[in-house]
Amino acid sequence: HTANPAVHFRMDANAAGFFESAVVGKGSDSTVRTERIAYVAGSARKGQSFLYWSGDRLYQLPVSYWTSLGTWINSPGPGYKDGDVNFRRGIAPRCLECHSTWMEWVPDLNVVNRFRPEGAILGITCERCHGAGREHVPHERSITIADRSVAIVNPARLSRERKVETCAQCHAGLGEPKLPSFTYVAGQILDHYLTLEPLRADAPVDVHGNQVALLERSRCFRSSQMTCTTCHDVHRQQRNVVELSEKCLT
């Protein structure tokens, strides 16, 4: 329910999938708009938002789930005011770049949210940090030395700056793309692909969207050669605060 007594939302599930509906009005005078949930964004540790297709355009649904409160909420971001019904927020390629591994964007001068869902790679997979597996296979099978250049990136062998940038592609804020999304590969210079505005020393940092800035402000970072992976094992979930505290103490 919302602050507007004439507007509420409903979630349904059946054999055809999961659905989100906006109900405006009451009784026989009400109107209903229903969209099928196509994708879920978020691991649910903090919450989840939901996306739907309209033709080949991808949009965010107006209601999300907030885990710590155990309840439905108005989706975060501009345009989602309590009591309003907004199905019009298009999903830009940059959003998917941090919430998936691959989605083919269809360039359009009028809209930013046209995609081809065929071949989409959902979730964050190995390729976000290590490069394309498809290119790796022929390199390894080739008997020609010239073709045996490294096709898979090992971030552990990168410089400190390049290591941090591998994480910064998604953990340093939204940024402004300079080149099409999904073209950056770990080990390249991130600034060639994405503009991330430097923050003033006293500027507040959004902990959800810019963990890299918080790290760089720390005394530990400025007094050592540590990177994100000094504390974080990116290959597994880490929820044990005792384990993380032991790393801090080193």
Described by the principal axes of the CA atoms, the overall outline is globular
- On the 0-100 scale, what is the average pLDDT? 91
Radius of gyration: 21 Å
What proportion strand?
25-35%
Structural class: alpha+beta
Q: Would you identify the regions where 5 or more consecutive residues have pLDDT less than 50?
A: none
* Through-space gap between termini: 49 Å
- Report the major sheet: 5 strands, antiparallel
The succession of helices and strands, N to C, reads: EEEEEEEEHEEHHHEEHHH
The tally of beta strands, per DSSP, is 12
Indicate the percent of residues in helices: 10-25%
Q: Number of helical runs?
A: 7
Describe the structure.
The structure is a single chain. The chain is an alpha+beta fold and 250 residues long. Helices cover 20% and strands 25% of the residues. The protein is built from 7 helices and 12 strands. It has helices spanning 93-99, 127-130, 133-141, 160-171, 211-217, 219-222, 241-248; strands at residues 7-14, 17-24, 31-36, 39-41, 47-54, 57-60, 63-66, 71-74, 100-105, 115-122, 176-177, 194-195. Strands 4, 5, 6, 7 and 8 form a 5-stranded antiparallel β-sheet that branches. It starts with 6 loop residues before the first strand and ends with a helix. The mean pLDDT is 91.
